[in-house]
Amino acid sequence: MRFLPPSLVAAQRSPSASPYLRVTVSERTGGVAQAAFQRLYSGGEPEGPHAAALAGDGSLLRARIAGGQLYYQRVPSPGPGSSFGSWTALGAAQRSLALAALGAQVLLAYVAADGSVAVRESQDYGASFGAAATVLPATAGAQHLALALKPGEVLLAYATTSQVAVLKRTGGAWGSPSAWPHSLGSISGLACHYGGDYNLAVTGAEAGGRAGLWTVVFGDGYRQGVGTWSALREVQRADAGSGVAFAAPCLSAPDVYRLGLVESYSGSQPYARLQLSHLVPGIDFADNWWREPLPSDITGAYGVAMAAASGLLWLSTPNGVWRADLSAPALDVSDRLLALEMEEVPLGGSLRLELADDDGSLWAAGSPLRPGAEVAVSLGYLTAEGPRTSPAPRYWATTVELRAEDGRRTLLLEGSSAWGLLSAWRARRQFAWAAGERNVFGILSFLWARAGVPFSTVSYSQAAVDLRPAFTVQPGQSGLEAVRRLLALVPDVVLLSQNFALLKHPQETEAPVYAYGDGHPVLAAAARRALPVANRVQVFGQGAFAEAFLWESVALGGDRLRQVHDLNVTSAAQAADRALWEARRLLLSLVSEELTVPPNCGQELYDLVTVTEPSLGLAAARRRVLSIRTGYDARRGLYRQRLGLGAP
Amino acid sequence: MEVVKGVVRAFDSASYRATVQVAGSLAVWLEGVPVARSVPASVVTAGRRCVLVFFDAANPQDAVVVAVYD
After folding, report:
1. A201: helix, coil or strand?
2. Residue numbers in A near B2 (CB within 8 A)
3. What per-residue confidence (pLDDT) applies to A627?
4. For chain A, which residues lie within 8 Å of any Cβ of chain B, measuring from their own Cβ?
5. pLDDT tens digit string along A92-129?
6. Closest CB from B22, B31, B58 relative to A485
C-alpha cells in the first residue's frame, strides 16, 4: 500500500470527508516525454559523416565532411527562424568526425587527410578553435570517432575495422589508448556519452556475420571500475544472411538516455531508416533496458547526430535539423473532472474520464489530451491540513471523444494501464534465451522495457532470481502474453505503481497493511462462494512429476484438473514447487468478497488487508486485494471504491 | 501446442538440429531446433520451408521441425 499522510488516512475514514482528485495529462509514455520532432531546416548538402553538439551558451554546433573537406557551423540561439545553411571550411578531412561540448569548452575531432586523428579545441562556445593537434597516428587505423567530456577530462573513442579503443586527456595530456577486450568482425558506427561512466554504443557485425547494436561501458567508477570495460550488451541483432544491418549510432541524455541508429535492409524492399529508442526511467545505461526502437521517417545511411540541452532534443544531418520539446508539461484538468471510473485488475486495468470542455481548449489543436497521452490520477480528500492525494497507477489514453449536448461540451477519455502498453507491444522478431542465460526477473525487465515501462520489485521469490528458463517470444506475440507465460513459472505477481511495473511475491505470512470495518467504514459488502477453474494441478517436467490440490474445493465440486507441461522443470522438487505455485495462483484468482468503501487512496493490488464485517461473519479476517474499482461522479456526489478480495 | 511455419536457414546433421527463420521474424533466426528423425537429413537444406510444432510456445527447446517442403 502506498504511504499516506495521517491527515489523509483520517479523512478517508471519515464519513463526511470531501473528495479531492487530481488529474493531469502529459505527452509521455512510461514517464518519458514523447519526442515529436519538428523539422527546422531542409538543405541541399550531400549525405556524409557529420556530428553535432550544443555549447553551454545554447549554440547549436554542427560539422560535416564532404568532398574531403571538413565544414563547421555555429548557430547561436537556434530556432525556427535560424539559418542552418551557412558553413565554414576548416580544411581537409575524411571518414569520420566527432563533436562534444561542455560549458564553453568544445572539442572537434576528425580523421585528417593522412589518416591520423586530429583534435581542435574551443574555449568560447565554439566561436573559434585553436590549431589542430594530432592525437593518433594514421597507423591507429581510426574509422569511426566519438567524443565525451566531463569536467577536466576528455575521452576520445575510436573504432578500427574491428576494435574499439579510448584515449583520455587528463590535465592537458593525452594518455595511451585502452582497447576493449572484445572483438567484432566489423564495426560500422560508434557513439559515446559521459554519464558517471563513459557509455558507448557500437554497431557492426560479429565475425560470423551476425549484425548488431551493442552497448559497452568504459568505467569511470559509477557502474564500472575506473579504466575497465564492461561486457558487450546486445540491444539489436540481425542474423547473418538476413539482409539487415545497423550503423550510425548516436547517444544523448536530455532526460533519460536516448539512442538513435540506422537499420538498413537490403532485401526485396530495401530501406535505411532511423530508429529511435530510450532507456526506461530509473535505469542505468549499464542495465541496457531499452524501449523497442521506434522507426522514424528520417532516412539515410549516415543517420543523425543528437544534441540536447534545456529540455530540447536536436537531431541533425548535413541537410536537416529537427527539434523536439521534451518538457512535456502536465496539463492539470482536475477542475474539469465530471466523472471517473478506474479499474485495477491483474494483468489489466482501464480508465474512463469525463471532462468538461465548455471553452473547447481540451479538444483544441495542441492540447496534450489525445490518444497516447499519459494520464496521472491522484486520489485524495480535503483533509484538516488541506487537500492531500496519493498517486494511482498511470494510464494512457486510447480514445478521446468529444460530445456536445444541450449546449455543453464534454470529453470522454478512455485509457488502459501499463498492461495495455505491454499488450500493444508485439515482438517484431524472434527473441530467445537459452536455459541458464537470464533469470526470470531479467527477462521480465527486458519485456517491460521493450514496451517502455520501467520494471522493479516490491518483493520477489527466490525462483524469480534463480530460475533461468529456456524461453522464447514468438514474432507477432504480445508482450502481455510473454509476461503471462513467464509469470506462470514463478510464484510472483506484477502490480502497477505510478509508471512502474513491480514484481511482488505474495506470501500468506505477510502482515496486513490496512484494516476495513475497523475504522474505515464498509458501505456495502457481498460474499461469494465459487469453484476455482481448477483445483488439482499436475506438473509434468523432464522426468519429473508432481501434484497439488485445493482440497476444500475438491470436496465441494470434485476434482478439476489443470495439467502443466514444462521442460524447464527437471527435478521432483521443482515439479512440486511449480504445482504448489499453480494451485496458489488458482486460489488468488478467486474473489470471495467484495466491499464497497470510501476510497482508500493508497490501496494497491495484492495488498494484504483485514476485514471486519459482521454481516459477512468476518472479524479481522485476512484477505488479499484482487481488484480495485474506483468511481467518482461530481454531479451525483459519488466517491466510492469496490474492492475484490480473496484468500491471503 | 502451436504450429508455425518457417524457413530452414542451417542444419547440423550430427545433432539433428536446425536453425529456422520463424515466419514473421525478418532478421533473427531460432537456433538449435530439433528436427524429426523421420525427416531425411538430405532434404533439410537452407532455404526450404518447414513446419515447426511448439509443444510449449514459450520454450524453444520443446519444439520440433516435423516437415520440410518446397
Report:
1. strand
2. 474
3. 98
4. 211, 237-239, 241-244, 265, 428-432, 434-435, 469-477, 482, 485-486, 565-568
5. 999 999 999 999 999 999 999 999 999 999 999 999 99
6. B58
Average pLDDT score over residue span B45-50: 97
Which phi and psi (to 5°) does residue A260 adopt?
Answer: -125, 155
All residues of chain B having their beta carbon less than 8 Å from the beta carbon of residue A434 are 32
What is the per-residue pLDDT for A518? Answer: 86
Indicate the burial class of A3 (C-beta count within 10 angstroms; 0-12, 13-18, 19 or more): exposed
Nearest to A242 among B4, B26, B61 (CB): B26
Distance of alpha carbon A213 from alpha carbon A280, whole angstroms: 18
**Cβ contact A501:A418 at 8 Å:** yes
- Kindly determine whether residue B61 and residue A566, on different chains, have CB atoms separated by under 8 Å: no
The single-letter DSSP state of residue A259 is: E
Q: If you ran DSSP here, which 8-state letter would residue A573 be given?
A: H
pTM of the model: 0.95
Query: Angle at Cα A204 formed by Cα A199 and Cα A210, nearest 5°?
Result: 125
**Backbone dihedral angles phi then psi of residue A629, each to the nearest 5 degrees:** -125, 115
DSSP state of A616: G
How many CB pairs (< 8 A) connect A and B? 78
pLDDT-derived band at A172 (thresholds 50, 70, 90) equals confident
Amino acid A96: pLDDT: 97
- What torsion, rounded to 10 degrees, do the Cα atoms A357, A361, A363, A364 define? 160
CB–CB contact A568 B59 (8 Å): yes
Facing B62 at nearest CB: one of A244, A476, A567: A567
Contacts of A431 in chain B (CB under 8 A): 28
A300: pLDDT confidence band, cut at 50, 70 and 90?
confident
β-sheet bridge partners, residue A641: A597, A630
Type and span of the H or E element at A169: strand A164-170
Using an 8 Å CB-CB cutoff, list residues of chain B that contact chain A. Answer: 2, 4, 9, 21-32, 54-62
At residue A94, the 3 state secondary structure works out as strand
The neighbouring-strand residues paired with B10 are: B19
**CB of B42 within 8 A of CB of B21?**
no
Question: Which residue spans within A407-499 are E strands per DSSP?
Answer: 408-416, 431-433, 455-457, 471-473, 493-497
Extended strands (E) in A195-329: 198-205, 211-218, 233-238, 244-252, 258-265, 271-278, 294-299, 305-309, 312-317, 320-325
The per-residue pLDDT for A171 is 87
Chain B residues near residue A477 by CB distance under 8 angstroms: 57
**Interchain CB distance below 8 Å, B26 and A432:** no
